[in-house]
Amino acid sequence: MFIVDYIKEVYGAVKSLLTGMNRTGYYFTHHKEIITQEYPDNKDTLVLSERFRGEVVMKHDENNEHACTGCTACELACPNATIKIITKFDVTPEGKKKKAIDTFVYHLELCTMCNLCVEACPTGAITMAQTFEHSVTDRSKLIKKLNQPGSKIREGVE
Amino acid sequence: MTNEALQETITALIPDTQFETGAEWLTITTDAVAIKPLLTALRQTAGLDFDYLFCLSGVDWKTHFNIVYHLSSTTQRHTVVVKAKVNRDNPEIDTVSDIWRTAEFHELEAYDLFGIIFTGHPGLRRLFLTDDWKGWPLRKDYEDPINMIKL
Amino acid sequence: MFEEVGTTTEGDLVINVGPQHPATHGVLHLVLTLNGETIKNVEPHLGYIHRSIEKMSESLTYRQFIYVTSRMDYLSSHINNHACALTVEKGLQIEVPARAQVIRVLMDELTRLASHQLWWGAMAMDVGALTPFFHAFREREAINEIMEETCGARLTMNYICPGGVMIDLHPNFQRKVKEFITLFKSKIDEYDEMVTGNIIFQNRMKGIGLLSKEDAISYGVSGPAARGSGVSCDIRKLYPYEIYGSLNFEEILETGGDCFARYLVRFKEMRQSLSIIEQLIDNIPEGDFQAKTKAVLKLPKGEFYSRVETARGELGVYLISEGGTTPYRVKYRSPGFSNLSALNHMSKGYKLGDLVAIMGTLDLVIPDIDR
Amino acid sequence: MFSLEGITDAIYSWLNSTFNPTIALLIEFAIVVVCVIGLFAVLGLVLVFMERKVSAYMQIRLGPNRVGFKGSMQTMADTLKLVLKEGLVPDGADKFLFNLAPFVVMIVAMLILAPIPFARNFQMWDINIGVLYVTAVSSLSVIGILMAGWSSNNKYSLLGAMRSGAQIVSYELSAGLAVLSIVVLTGSLQLSDIVNSQQDGWWIFKGHIPAIISFVIFIIAVTAETNRAPFDLAEAESELTAGFHTEYSGMRFALFFLAEYVNIFIVCSIGAILFLGGWMPFHIGNWEAFNHVMDFIPSSVWFFGKVFFLIFLIMWFRWTFPRLRIDQLLNLEWKYLLPISMFNLLLMTLMAIMGWYF
């Protein structure tokens, strides 16, 4: 019957529309479902995963010592030339010359946080930090020196 | 069909076809001039039915170009690779966009990045780069001092 | 074999859709020739986000070039990485440990789910329903959190390295994924209520953008777009890689060939991905997560091709090695590029409003097209 | 008890006792103009805020929550931004029409406010052809939209304007027929008469089935007429970026935006007057105590309550449904709504003659 089909069709159409409205109406009345995170306000309670890759940092211990030997493995592993290691020669007490890092230059503006440098580091000197608010007003501020001033290589790291 | 059976069938079809074996798929090497009849045969011969061109790539071998067609059949589930040698000074090859419609776009890409001219293509134009772009970026001798950073 | 390419006659309206347009979800530029509201011709102009990843890959080592591919189809970045890693492993003939294989597949399916959720929201937004987008993002967020915890990043994970994965699963991984499964199972029916069953949505989708099986094959359309036309092309089924061969899942096939069929394929694929995750999550084998590889990888001279199924279709990586530490030539056969080539054919004769529906069901990701 | 009637009467008598009648009339005009503009501004702010909050809660978001209490000053801040922005005129645009269009749309919206009874005996102009006036004037707004679309010198705008023209002209018909069916029942075109006829019950209850049908048709038609989703073809964001107001910026855009919301308010108040009894309180038969409590609620609260209920309904549609396509939209009108409403009008006439209503 044409008229029965027609009414069925209209009924189905209206029903489908009402189901959708029921769904949005549910969310309109159930404010507990809201998922908005009010970002700067919840900064104190915000927990980032410890693996989150925010930027490359060099680990320093309490004696201001790091584990970087200046082997440039990270520099070679980096796909974007983010890392530049400037080496110098230290003179050991025995009078031998020894290669050490002078400056570990890190271009945050080029970094894609791919983790390849951390993977490549044989001594575990660098790691990824969980910071993520990197915006600055001047691009040159993104060029960072990772080894702290006056720091030296930890004893026994080769 | 297995690679061996494919090789036999194709040899029966076009006797002087050159094959490379050892790779995952059967590879046919040919010249740019002979490409159209070969591919038409591959597409239309019953039992072969290569109806799905899933990849078309250009390769710059410094002495010549290669256009590599990866063909597959959605009914027989066999795959063949056809490599056509294109002259580097006068890079021209027949279009296959009338055999597989997808080739239309892939050929545009190869033209844009390698400068290989596909004769008979319905609308050869720069697809990615601007119309007034100089040079063909994926060629090995392409130089761009501004946009290319050499590590 | 060609239809007459639409020619501009007097009375035709030529408009530029994009590169900045809400429906193109990126920087796709389409030149439309309209007759009133009816589409006569669609001509895509690409390259607004072309970074020449293929050229870049030629100067990167085999460890490095994997990460660049995350930037192609950023919604299935993990699967792109997977394809590259498979190619390198094929060349080096490395056996990937069982644990790594399972982890990779789990992550693949999570990525696929996240991608399909985003597609679902964006698709609904294209046809004018704005609310589903936010609902889709709620569930996608759960996946992103899982990704962030294990891989260290939310979108461009770079979790895969040749021989396995970069780092073992996070201890919370299994618990979080199970929580997600329960959450998503309760919400996916809401998706149906909100969009699939809606009469307006069905009218917008049914019979629109018809693509016959023959045309789908000829245009090289792959993935859900082709499966909506009845072309069996799921790489996971046809050419199984990793452990897909031993998994129990269905290849979704619809024969309609219209937008609604493509919609249904993607929608049902979400449930299939969920079922794959359910099968694997309790059966992650113990063992190494990475095979032993040399520090500097050198592929033997030769050509390697590997194909995987991304959320959009078949991704092929064609790698030519000359024996050095970097590839000689890499070609990415990206699914979006081939799918886009069918757009003109699919949208001819339909209305302007249908174009966004067709583009929505093709699920175009522009960086994937431009590379 | 709070009553707007008392305030107007007091002002009227004070003015007439202090000044001579002409000056009193002029001052009254001035007061009315200030009130209308004030109402416009307040309505714009309130409705935009309401829309944002409704959409936010439906989309499981919080919505604006920074400026003012729970974000209530957000629309104010946005208006300030729009006022301060430069109003660009695209190159090649018809500058005169381009500048005129937002005002046309705005003035049309203002005109329709005239015969609307906001509360008991609180009406600017109780014209005896109120319904006719409203339907006639509201169809003028399409001129403003066409003007905007044409003069922008933008193909998207033109497409949007053309769609809007086709849409408004079509949906005018069924909206008019739905309105007519109530006019048939009341036998009067005067809005105050229509409200008064609903003393003992609203038409949607008294007129039962045909009235409900015409109410539904009316809501669908006015949603389309005000270019709201799911009928927002004229500005279909994902297809035409912003349709007829693509090229507008700054204050001109704000006027379009404001006019859209005021139009919603107007059509919803017409709907409330015709079907839901305007400012009449809700009465049930002879439940004297209940009716007395209902009477205690001021008439203006009743009116605005009903109007905002209808506005919420329209917003609910917008944030739930996908958009129709242009041909489906016209199909819906010409193949479904128009025949149904014609038949419904016939039924209503029969009902009115036979006295089958309560």
Automatic annotation (TrEMBL), chain A:
- Regions that span the bilayer: none
| Family matches, as PANTHER family | NADH DEHYDROGENASE UBIQUINONE IRON-SULFUR PROTEIN 8, MITOCHONDRIAL, NADH-QUINONE OXIDOREDUCTASE SUBUNIT I 2
What superkingdom heads the lineage? Bacteria
A Gene Ontology molecular function term of the record: 4 iron, 4 sulfur cluster binding
Keyword vocabulary terms for this entry = 4Fe-4S, Cell membrane, Iron, Iron-sulfur, Membrane, Metal-binding, NAD, Quinone, Repeat, Translocase, Ubiquinone
Q: Which GO terms describe its cellular component?
A: membrane
What is any Pfam family matched here? Answer: Fer4_7
Which residue ranges does the record assign to the 4Fe-4S ferredoxin-type domain? 59-88, 102-131
What name is this protein filed under?
4Fe-4S dicluster domain-containing protein
Name the InterPro entries on file.
4Fe4S_Fe-S-bd, 4Fe4S_Fe_S_CS, NADH_quinone_OxRdtase_chainI
Organism whose genome encodes this protein: Limnovirga soli
Automatic annotation (TrEMBL), chain B:
**TM segments?**
none
Q: Which UniProt keywords apply?
A: Transport
GO terms for MF: NADH dehydrogenase (ubiquinone) activity; oxidoreductase activity, acting on NAD(P)H
Q: Which domain of life is it from?
A: Bacteria
Domain named NADH:ubiquinone oxidoreductase 30kDa subunit: residues: 29-143
The record's section on Pfam families has:
Complex1_30kDa (PF00329)
InterPro entries per the record? NADH_DH_suC, NADH_quin_OxRdtase_su_C/D-like, NADH_UbQ_OxRdtase_30kDa_su
Q: Which family does it belong to?
A: Belongs to the complex I 30 kDa subunit family.
> What PANTHER family does this protein's entry cite?
NADH DEHYDROGENASE [UBIQUINONE] IRON-SULFUR PROTEIN 3, MITOCHONDRIAL, NADH DEHYDROGENASE UBIQUINONE IRON-SULFUR PROTEIN 3
Protein name (database record)? NADH-quinone oxidoreductase subunit C
Organism expressing this protein natively? Limnovirga soli
Lineage, broadest ranks: Bacteria, Pseudomonadati, Bacteroidota, Chitinophagia, Chitinophagales
From TrEMBL, chain C:
GO cellular component assignments: plasma membrane
Name the major location.
membrane
* Gene3D superfamilies xrefs: Cytochrome-c3 Hydrogenase, chain B (1.10.645.10)
Q: Which Pfam families match?
A: Complex1_49kDa
Q: Which reaction does it catalyse?
A: a quinone + NADH + 5 H(+)(in) = a quinol + NAD(+) + 4 H(+)(out)
Give the record's subunit note: NDH-1 is composed of 14 different subunits. Subunits NuoB, C, D, E, F, and G constitute the peripheral sector of the complex.
Could you identify this protein by its name? NADH-quinone oxidoreductase subunit D
Q: Which organism is it from?
A: Limnovirga soli
Q: Does the keyword Isomerase apply?
A: no
Domain NADH-quinone oxidoreductase subunit D, which positions?
Answer: 126-371
Q: Which InterPro entries match?
A: NADH_Q_OxRdtase_suD, NDH1_su_D/H, NiFe-Hase_large
Similarity comment? Belongs to the complex I 49 kDa subunit family.
Catalytic activity, EC:
7.1.1.-
The family database entries (SUPFAM superfamilies) matched by this protein are listed as: HydB/Nqo4-like
Known HAMAP family for this protein?
NDH1_NuoD (MF_01358)
Q: Which UniProt keywords apply?
A: Cell membrane, Membrane, NAD, Oxidoreductase, Quinone, Translocase, Transport
Report the subcellular localization.
Cell membrane
Instruction: List where the protein spans the membrane.
Output: none
Q: Would you say which domain of life the source belongs to? A: Bacteria
Q: Indicate the enzyme's highest-level EC class.
A: translocase
Q: What does this protein do?
A: NDH-1 shuttles electrons from NADH, via FMN and iron-sulfur (Fe-S) centers, to quinones in the respiratory chain. The immediate electron acceptor for the enzyme in this species is believed to be a menaquinone. Couples the redox reaction to proton translocation (for every two electrons transferred, four hydrogen ions are translocated across the cytoplasmic membrane), and thus conserves the redox energy in a proton gradient.
Automatic annotation (TrEMBL), chain D:
Keyword Cell membrane attached: yes
List the InterPro entries: NADH_UbQ_OxRdtase_su1/FPO, NADH_UbQ_OxRdtase_su1_CS
Q: Which domain of life is it from?
A: Bacteria
Q: Which GO terms describe its biological process?
A: aerobic respiration
- In short, the EC number is 7.1.1.-
- For this UniProt record, give its keywords in alphabetical order, as a comma-separated list: Cell membrane, Membrane, NAD, Oxidoreductase, Quinone, Translocase, Transmembrane, Transmembrane helix, Ubiquinone
Give the molecular function GO annotations.
Answer: NADH dehydrogenase activity; oxidoreductase activity, acting on NAD(P)H, quinone or similar compound as acceptor; quinone binding
Mind telling me which GO cellular component terms the entry cites?
Answer: plasma membrane
What are the transmembrane regions? 23-49, 96-118, 130-150, 171-191, 203-224, 253-276, 296-316, 336-357
A Pfam family the protein falls into? NADHdh
Q: Which HAMAP family match?
A: NDH1_NuoH (MF_01350)
Q: Which family does it belong to?
A: Belongs to the complex I subunit 1 family.
Q: What does this protein do?
A: NDH-1 shuttles electrons from NADH, via FMN and iron-sulfur (Fe-S) centers, to quinones in the respiratory chain. The immediate electron acceptor for the enzyme in this species is believed to be ubiquinone. Couples the redox reaction to proton translocation (for every two electrons transferred, four hydrogen ions are translocated across the cytoplasmic membrane), and thus conserves the redox energy in a proton gradient. This subunit may bind ubiquinone.
| Record note on quaternary structure | NDH-1 is composed of 14 different subunits. Subunits NuoA, H, J, K, L, M, N constitute the membrane sector of the complex.
This one is known as NADH-quinone oxidoreductase subunit H
Organism this protein belongs to = Limnovirga soli
